[in-house]
Design a protein that fits this description.
The chain has 228 residues and is mostly helical. It is built from eight helices and three strands, in the order αβαααββαααα. It has a three-stranded antiparallel β-sheet with strand order 1-3-2. A hairpin with a 6-residue loop joins strand 2 and strand 3.
Amino acid sequence: LNMKSALRRQVLRNLTTDLIKYGRLETTMPRAKELRRLADKMITLGKRGTEHDRHQIEAYLYQPKAVVPLLMHTYARRFADRPGGFTRVLPIGHRQGDRAPMAVIEILNSDEPEAEVSFSYLVRSLAAMQMRAEGSVVARALAPEADAQAVYPNKRAFKRALDEQKANQRFAAKIKKAMRNADLSAEQLQAIVDKDVVHARELHEKEAAKKINQYMKEIWPENAPALG
């Protein structure tokens, strides 16, 4: 992390405390990978629940009155049958300025899987696909079809089509897993995607109206008519 050991320990203690307390955190990818190890360790201590484990948690994390009940009760019950892998790291691009790789790390929530970041990303991906094409996108994404009659001019085109088909199959498997975790049918997931599409179009229309109003003020500085 390019820090001295004392500062590194303090930063990681702060971030681990916030992750345990709030369940989700946005940070750089190297810090997220370190946080995953520490958060899993703290949740494992909370699951064991002995007095010695409590002292270890209190010695490492800040705000023990807030985080100890979460670890020893909330997360211990949530992950009672899970041996490990209590967190998920999702890359979200690069930070403006220094282009540092950014990520969201979250504690899994099997009770409300639709509240997880990964489910939101999946819905947004499906909504973006639906905005580019007409009709229900969930049914098509769940059953990707290859064109058996397609003729490819060379090996490169054939390999590109094969890679695209494999990517579509992986995406279909991801959708099925999300539906199984959230206990949703294809029709219910499609309804959620439809709501997201409506919301995205409303935001797009508001942004377009804002740009038009700004343009009108530039070319008509006095008493410009308001649009939208």
